[in-house]
Amino acid sequence: MRLVYIKYCFIICCLLLFSCKKVINVNLNSVAPQIVIEGNVTNAYAPYQVQITQTVNFSASNVFPAVSGALVKITDNTAAITDTLKETSAGVYTTNIIKGIPGHTYQLYVVALGQTYTAISTMPQPVLLDSVSFQRSNLFGKTNINPTVNFQDPAGITNYYIFREYIKGKINTYAFDDRLSDGKYISLQLYTDSLFVGDTANIQMNCVDKNIYNYFNALGQNLTGGNNQPISPSNPVSNISNNALGYFNAGTIIYKKRVVQ
Fold it and tell me: What is this structure's pTM?
């Protein structure tokens, strides 16, 4: 069982080379902008969106330029349907006709800034999130309360999960696979800042394919920090071609909302 606690942020990498007389400073502003593509197709209600931005140098403000004027298409390879997305706001492209169906394979096609990018993702079958409960523990005389997701993992099928936890304005993300718990009933505790009676926990459970799991699993090993920070060049390998950052995900989604009693 692998539980990864993921929060998005930037890693500031400073390299100092010392000698007896000289310090060499690396120019961290010299990195060329990279394109960032983030897209999701789910079994929830359409439309779906693809967001395209560019990275900035770490010393710049955290305002990431939108990439407008791109050609963005999503094809349902299983149903042989292609949807040309419409730019509904700067850098945000919205579907028109495509539907998310478990078992179908979807292909993303983007032409932006003179380059072509593609990605493929297959939507798994959904797994039911039975309930969200709360686990209380005592540490150094303090009671901690954390949400626990409860669900039956299907036997004989490799399953990959992404859990997002929306609590007190924060978003925490966890990657989990059933390598050591195939076919078992799972009660998985999601660790975060302790909750209090009256707090509301909104839990999102996503079933994803292996590439998306690997992406968020590696992201969790490499990054720490605040809520859903924009993608940075230190990201793990994307499933999008041509050295793009970000990801394209076709996954199922289910929500549960629970108040701490």
Answer: 0.80
